[in-house]
Amino acid sequence: MIATDQSLPPPDACHLSVVLPCANERDNLPPLLEELEPALQALGCPFEVICVDDGSTDGGWDVLRGLQAGRPWLRLFRHRTNFGQSASYCTGFRLARGELVLTMDADRQHDPADIRRFLGELRGDLAAVCGVRAGRHDNWVRRRSSQIANGFNTWVTGDRVVDAGCTFRLIRKSALAELPVFNGQHRFLPTLLRLQGHQVLEIPVNHRQRPAGKSKYGIGNRLWRGILDCLAIRWYRQRAFPADRLAPGQPGPSAAAPATGATPAVTGELKR
To answer: pTM to 2 decimals?
Structure first.
């Protein structure tokens, strides 16, 4: 496939960075990039896609290297071993060149058609727009564990997040600068942003069945560890300070430089 001129931005002109953690998703990678490419090109802005291979053992890294041919916007990075999904996102955050960072899973359950909606909603003082999976196509174990974890998260941390497990999000890169890095961070990213004084909006997004591969999560590493992590976030809530600390008129970048446009009337809640 031949990339358009808009898909070949210089490093200092990239507008949107898509971060994809890839761990044993070999069969999902070719169709995912084939679907993602036209969706991104249709946006009309410079973009890049960052794939972070998290120690795959299924040959996924070789598949990614093959897919890079003819796609100069595709950047590949590889962890020396499996560090987990949060580590992959954090690596992508550090390497992203875009002003905006879009996070997705590589299992093809997120719909690239929703990306335009994210961009349309990120206005005013919003630092992030986070997806809420509508009509989830997961088994009852994943759905039930998510319900319990989301409820416990709200009760313990005091921050209501409708779907903390949905990693389909659009975030201003400037808002990521001071987020704490730890295993499990991706589940608490909306809460961490709010604790630093940022505004976050949640919107419903399409959710699809996983067409290939296996889920990496279950009761053992999803529910119980998430509950323990909530206690750590409760501690962090008592210690957090705003990311935007400079007095008005002081030189320096804003913590989440807002784009032009009106701020949605409701932030920190689900927009339907």
So the answer is: 0.81
* Residue 104 shares a structural domain with residue 127: no
Same domain, 195 and 82: no
Q: Which two tokens stand for residue 149?
A: 């974890």
Same domain assignment for residues 94 and 40: yes
Residue 263 lies in a domain: yes
**Do 135 and 204 fall into the same domain?**
yes
d(CA 36, CA 240): 36
Q: Which two tokens stand for residue 183?
A: 């295993």
The predicted-structure confidence for 144-201, as pLDDT tens digits, reads as follows 555 655 555 565 655 667 788 899 999 999 999 999 999 989 988 999 999 999 999 9
Contact 13, 7 (CB under 8 A): no
Q: What is the DSSP letter of 22?
A: E
- In this structure, are 87 and 163 located in the same domain? no
CA distance 133 to 162: 9
DSSP output for 198-231: -EEEEEEEEB----SS--S--IIIIIHHHHHHHH
Provide the residue type at 39 as one letter.
A
Say if residue 7 is in the same domain as residue 97: yes
